[in-house]
Design goal:
The structure is a single chain. By secondary structure, this protein is of the alpha+beta class. The chain has a single domain (about 1-80), classed as Phosphoribosylformylglycinamidine synthase subunit PurS (Mth169, Chain: A), CATH 3.30.1280.10. It contains two helices and three strands. It has helices at about 15-30, 55-65; strands at about 1-10, 40-45, 70-80. The chain has a three-stranded antiparallel sheet with strand order 2-1-3, with helices on one face. One of its GO terms (biological process) is 'de novo' IMP biosynthetic process. One of its GO terms (molecular function) is ATP binding. It is found in: Cytoplasm.
Amino acid sequence: MYKVKVFVTLKESVIDPEGAAATKELKKSDFPEVENVRVGKYIELTIDKTENVEKAVHDMCQNLLVNTEVEDYRFEIEEAAAK
């Protein structure tokens, strides 16, 4: 069994309105040291598969979890204890 952490971020070339709004509000809230905020998402999967986990996760990201036109992703795979 594997625990997979998927980190999704907007590509650098894509404007991040949520990040821009967060940056503005942080600066207004006495955090002037904040230069830029980029907002992404975190997805956690538990997979009961023993063969080619990396390819399976890559395929899941490419086909369903990530909009690869505007988002980049990376993932970490950890072995998890079976329940």
